[in-house]
Fold this sequence. Notes:
Helix 1 crosses helix 3, helix 2 crosses helix 3 and helix 5 runs antiparallel to helix 18. By secondary structure, the chain is α+β, with helices and mostly antiparallel strands. The protein is globular. The mean pLDDT is 91. A hairpin with a 2-residue loop joins strand 27 and strand 28. The longest helix is centred in the C-terminal third of the chain and has 43 residues. Helices cover 32% and strands 27% of the residues.
Amino acid sequence: MSMRDKIEHAIQNQPCTVKELKQKFGGERGADRKVMEALDELVREAVVCQRQGVFFTVRSGRADKALLCKVVKLGKNFAFVMLEDGTSDIFIPGRFTKGAMPGDDVLVEKFEHPRVEGSDEGAILAILTEKNDLVGTVRRVEGRLRFVPDDCPAITMPLARDCEGGAKDGDKVAVEILNRGSRQEDHRVGVAMRFGSSDEAKRCAKALLYAKDIRTRFPDKVRDEAKKFEGAEVSEKDCEGRMDLRALPIFTIDSAETKDIDDAISLTRTSDGGFELGVHIADVSNYVKPGTELDNEAFSRATSVYYADQVVPMLPKALSNGICSLNENELRLAFSCLMRLDKEGNLTDYRFVKSIIRSRVKGVYSEINALLAGTADAEIKAKYADVIDQLPAMKELYGHRARLRKERGCMDIESGEVKLILDENGRCIDVKKRTSGESESMIEEFMLLANQCAAHFARVKQIPFVYRVHEEPNAEKLERLHALLQACGINDHFAKDVPTPKELSAILEGVRGTPYEQIVNTGMLRCMSKALYEEKPKGHYGLVLKDYAHFTSPIRRYPDLAIHRIMTDLLKGTEKETMILRYTDFAERASKQSSEREVIAMQIERKAEDCYKAEYARRHLGECYEGTISGVTQRGLFIELDNGVEGFVPASSLTPSGTSLTEGVRLTDPASGKTWSLGDRMMITIVRADVNLGKIDFEVAPAAKA
């Protein structure tokens, strides 16, 4: 059989890439050339056609049906791929995966008759782009080291013997696929990097960063540009053309550990009994210019990533902790939003100015809370002597703003954030619920007001911008919320199909202080659409605002830096038409990139937190605690302890006779009639904690069983 006939026969059976054809028929001297010559001849004669580097027989018509997809999930005997436009996913049975891995770009053919009616099911025809770098754990299986990917822990791959890289059983590693087989378990991998023991949360966190291509070290070119700002000071020349606000008693309020301080405030009374509130933001755009390595890197990162006691900054420390940080008693360039409010706290006017400021004191939330409550000692009062006179007016203004926020129906959802307490070796030794005092809420409200002004400024001027958008919940999520509320016995009759934030806020108020408070808060959070960045103003459902953007954190968020750049240009007098030409594409790209990177950063932060919580739980194996049922599935119960640590109790440990599930909110033992419902309190024992997976297993405490 000629090479041409061999290739045509192979493609008739299965679409093939050039790589696959060379693997089948090449190898010998001159064979690769013969493969290419035969392919060219078949294409010229229209016997085969090509799409995305994959060859099909023309008469099969399969090329027209092939869909560009990305592998997004992989299990032991299945995969899911997402369409290129992200609109829907397709189920791939195991025998049709062709050994594809998460992140691979693939061509997929949908089945005309899927096994489950109404579902999308198909086969991978070809792998177009291979993602060969993976992160996971090394395990010794039957005396041989094998690699277990984080993305698909049901699969193991052999380590090439000469590419083990010194890895040991239990190590967290990054690997590269050296040779691919027809099945995932036939791939051979080599260790590219060792992070250390997978039993240490800090090692797992580093692996999470690596897997998402988040590097703690800046590229050399970026570091070289940043060096110019090391030890930099604001000169008199820098101050030219700026509003001089050094006489104002401006100060910052942050947590005690904060080093990248990008916002400060000031407040003065007006003659008519109102307020002039100043929100002064680090003028990062003055230092990070378009087209520079610093700007390119900031755009790529789009956000700082915070986890445990660590931060991977968007900007190098010479800027984030230095010249851009509004440090105490240091001259700094700022972008100020100066707002006028009447004596009832209503916003009446605002303006944006480039300014020069000097923060009088580095305020700390806990200390400001003590001052506001009247419990501060003499030492704290002395520290805040230059700004203490502003605090009563700030408290009064915040009271007005909180009332207005409540009147417009803004939801006050508890986020359930925790604080991880680490020892000197970076191990988690305690977990505590994070609490917010009056100063935290006050600063949040003042920043929100400045953000609102920035979005209003851009919308009225009709210029390209990066808005913070939050749309109303979709029908599917509302249906799940409805089922939850019904199961909790909560009346959720709404005037229209989509509830107003005010209606949801009333429900939250109704469950405050009850066993259902945390459950309903969590359910409400899950029902919300994901806030994201867009170049068009669509308003913010959760905050009940027509105008919203992110203006106040340009050190750690690229959207803020982007709109500073746009607003600066407009304040210089640039014509609207020029603004549209200059920034339309930029605003669109910045919105898309920032939304994508924000999701990645949040995933890392949550997964890292789970690893640290599991590390804490390992210190308390065998101990008993009381918790609240926070989730109910057919498999068992999720229990949240009072400090925010969550674990799972399998249904098999609840009763030997089996359980039945009621609407995802209640398990029942038909034999005894005993029930376990959302919001119920129960005693558990911590029995297992897997730091690597960030999972904790509980059992019903012996006393509770009795």
